[in-house]
Design goal:
Blueprint lengths: L2 H21 L2 H4 L1 E2 L1 H4 L1 E8 L9 H19 L5 E5 L3 E7 L4 H9 L4 E5 L4 H8 L7 E5 L6 E5 L4 E2 L3 E9 L5 E8 L1 H13 L5 E5 L2 E4 L11 E4 L5 H13 L6 E9 L1 H30 L1 H27 L6 E2 L1 H30 L4 H33 L3 H33 L23 H22 L6 H4 L1 E7 L6 H10 L6 E4 L6 E6 L4 H11 L6 E8 L1 H30 L2 H24 L6 H31 L5 H33 L5 H32 L1
Parallel strand pairs: 1-15
Antiparallel strand pairs: 2-4, 2-14, 3-4, 5-8, 5-11, 6-7, 9-10, 10-13, 11-12, 14-19, 16-18, 16-19, 17-18
Helix pairs in contact: 1-10, 1-13, 4-8, 9-10, 9-11, 9-21, 10-11, 10-13, 11-12, 11-13, 11-21, 12-13, 12-18, 12-20, 14-19, 18-19, 18-20, 19-20, 19-22, 20-21, 20-22, 21-22
């Protein structure tokens, strides 16, 4: 065996061994995303509108520190808390199941104030009548709704607190109270206030609400105070916690929330694994049956491709600490999809080897030439898809970035396995004398269709489909968008038995949710999706449980996007689409030295995205972030077929110098037709598996890919190729 081949084997085994080390055990090496194991994703906006301009960024930094301290004290494992922009904070809390408590803990400003209460009944009566004296404010006690007239000037604030803890009051029937310890300066000031105001009431105000207002009996010199109220133990503990770590410097609003219950997380894992196994099995069986020994070699490469993806996900945090190696549900889809797309390279190589064998080349020469001639098309097509994946990562959020990372790793892994690993396996078998011949099946025979001659008919068909889709899109207006872009709140519930939708609809109407929409899934009628325009999930959950007492109603997930966040996400999605097209345009123009080729290819991509978008709105589906992810994936994948044809045109130009461009394009399309149908068909095995078995979360994503990939085969033949001819003639 040659030394060069030995070194390649050692290198491959080294890469695989390293990946195996970082891949296993899976539960320790790779973190599951919130959509798989449950938890909360929050985008918080710090309200700096009332602060001086110089203090705005400082307030966000302080808020970040306060939130981190609160969450650390709350006991969440492996939380992620990051600043985004100048006044936004992204919080991820894996495994958190008590949503209401977490929201209260994170969002509570915890501004504690001690204010003296006016003891003049006349002034109080005037305030209740609407005439509040200057320097005072009218408040009502949390305990018994008692009206109180408080001095606006604060006697003491929460900055004076050095510690806060929970105790049980003997005089309040063993009720929990929050005991405060003041620092030296606070104790001194508190002693002075109580000494000078014996007999008056001192209100303890938290976030603008009066918790209690005890009478000052004596000067308090101990530097201690107590907050009483109608607390349970958990509420008292949370209040003590936020007071210990300090108040937020400014109020915060939840711009975006995605809460996934543990039941949905496990269901997503089950469905994702099922879709993955079915899709991969279909690909493996087809390759082995159709390409025989070469297909088995390709299957080995695909299996190793999966190992490399898992290994790189486990290795990623060690190489790039800033990039998360979290596996999300779209990440699983990206992993399976990258395996389907990896077939593309193997099919290209095998079809090239078949052509060389048909020309009478020896087996060794045919294999060498097959890899050499397929390399440029494989490299170019993978680079264009990587451009789309990079832009997904740049403009995407949360799970979409997970999809982009997984897809990127999968594409790089497929280049390695399809070009290096499979060739090494062939070379080993040739070197040992175990491979004497290479047989493959051939379903699609050589064709001689005049594809270009029918181009005008298909131009009209495409325009009709696209215009119809756009009409539906503009007719639906804001209703075409999901909550990711339009804002609003989505709640998903599971019932013990399929509930009556009319009963839920009537309940929503009686509860004031006039704009609510309800969706029940055909494959799982026990699950109901409710979309509302306002944040009242607690009210809705409570009323559903009351209306269906025997149905074990459980919240599976809540997604909330505010109008500002919705516009922000829509803008980012738009830029991702535009820049992906620009990136692909520039790269293809550079590689093929002709702007006509690049522009025709991008028009074909735009065609595929518009067709997919049209079918989304025509079928009543909504455009969400995963739909945009699918559109970008279509852009990256569909260009593969176009590049393969372009590559063959470039090759035929060198061989048949006297042929016209019309003849060259027709010849090239016919020569690559089998490969185009095969690769797209095999990838569709995976997409169909995700669509049928991936669950409702991935339904829009898979549907968009399904339409886009079918459109991609069509546009490569009838849009991209004819447009090159049309624009070249004009030029």
């Amino acid at each position: 065996m040659e030394k060069r081949l030995t070194y390649k084997i050692i290198m491959i085994l080294g890469v695989l061994g390293l990946c195996a080390y970082f891949a296993f055990p899976l539960d320790k090496r790779i973190n599951l995303g919130l959509d798989l194991k449950g938890g909360m994703h929050l985008l918080l906006k710090v309200d700096t509108s009332h602060l001086p301009e110089k203090a705005k960024e400082e307030a966000a930094d302080r808020a970040l520190e306060v939130i981190r301290n609160r969450i650390d004290a709350f006991g969440v494992r492996e939380p992620s808390i990051q600043k985004q922009g100048t006044d936004e904070i992204v919080v991820q809390l894996p495994g958190v199941t008590d949503r209401d408590r977490a929201l209260d803990l994170i969002g509570k400003t915890a501004l504690l104030e001690f204010k003296l209460v006016s003891g003049e009944p006349q002034k109080l009566k005037e305030a209740i009548a609407g005439d509040v004296p200057e320097g005072y404010e009218l408040k009502y006690s949390q305990d018994n709704n008692e009206p109180m007239l408080l001095e606006k000037e604060t006697a003491l604030t929460g900055d004076a607190i050095s510690n806060a803890s929970v105790r049980f009051s003997q005089s309040e029937f063993n009720q929990p109270v929050v005991a405060l310890e003041l620092n030296a300066e606070g104790a001194k000031k508190f002693a002075e206030v109580t000494k000078n105001n014996i007999g008056r009431r001192l209100a303890i105000v938290l976030d603008g609400k009066v918790q209690s207002a005890p009478v000052i009996r004596d000067a308090i010199l101990s530097g201690e105070a107590v907050i009483t109220g109608r607390f349970d133990v958990e509420q008292a503990q949370d209040l003590a916690l936020v007071l210990r770590v300090g108040a937020l410097p400014a109020p915060m609003h939840i711009e975006e929330e995605r809460t996934i219950g543990p039941l949905l997380g496990q269901d997503s894992i089950n469905k994702g694994v099922k879709a993955s196994l079915i899709g991969c099995a279909a690909v493996f069986v087809f390759m082995a049956v159709y390409y025989l020994f070469a297909g088995i070699v390709a299957d080995v490469a695909l299996a190793l491709n999966l190992l490399i993806i898992l290994g790189c996900l486990g290795m990623l945090p060690h190489l790039f600490p800033g990039i998360s190696a979290t596996l999300t549900l779209p990440g699983i889809a990206g992993m399976v999809l990258s395996l389907g797309m990896a077939v593309d390279a193997n099919v290209l190589v095998n079809e090239r080897i078949r052509e060389e064998l048909t020309l009478g080349r020896s087996l060794r020469t045919a294999i060498a030439n097959g890899y050499s001639k397929a390399f440029t098309a494989i490299f170019d097509s993978n680079i264009t898809t990587l451009i789309a994946a990079f832009l997904l990562f740049q403009f995407g959020t949360g799970p979409i970035r997970g999809f982009a990372v997984t897809l990127t790793i999968g594409l790089i892994a497929s280049l390695f396995t399809a070009i290096v690993v499979t060739r090494t396996i062939f070379e080993v078998f040739l070197s040992l004398g175990w491979l004497k011949s290479l047989h493959m099946l051939k379903i699609i025979k050589e064709t001689k269709f005049d594809f270009i001659g029918k181009r005008r008919i298909f131009y009209v068909i495409s325009l009709v489909i696209i215009i119809t889709g756009l009409v539906f899109f503009f007719k639906r207006g804001p209703g075409a968008y999901g909550i990711d872009f339009a804002g609003g709140q989505l709640q998903e519930y599971s019932f013990k038995n399929p509930p009556q939708i009319n009963k839920i609809r009537q309940l929503l109407k009686e509860s004031g949710f006039v704009d609510a929409s309800i969706q029940q899934f055909r494959d799982n009628p026990r699950v109901v999706l409710i979309r509302t325009g306002e944040n009242k999930s607690e009210v809705l959950t409570g009323r559903l449980k009351a209306a269906f007492p025997d149905e074990e109603v459980q919240m599976l997930r809540i997604e909330k996007v505010g109008p500002i966040a919705g516009r922000h996400l829509k803008t980012k999605a738009f830029y991702a689409l535009i820049w992906s097209l620009v990136g692909i345009l520039v790269y293809v123009a550079f590689r093929f030295k002709h702007f006509n080729f690049a522009f025709a290819g991008v028009i074909a991509l735009l065609h595929d995205m518009l067709v997919a978008l049209g079918f989304l709105v025509i079928t009543g589906r909504q455009i969400d972030l995963l739909s945009v992810t699918a559109l970008l994936t279509i852009a990256g994948y569909s260009i593969n077929d176009t590049i393969v044809i372009y590559d063959r045109v470039r090759e035929n130009m060198r061989i048949a110098r006297k042929a016209s461009l019309y003849e060259l394009i027709n010849l090239s399309v016919n020569q690559t037709l089998g490969r185009t149908i095969l690769t797209s068909g095999v990838t569709l095995f995976v997409v169909i598996a995700i669509f049928l078995y991936g669950g409702e979360v991935l339904s829009n994503f898979a549907f968009t890919l399904l339409v886009g990939f079918i459109s991609g085969v069509y546009s490569t033949i009838y849009i991209a190729s004819p447009l090159v001819l049309a624009w070249t003639r004009k030029k």
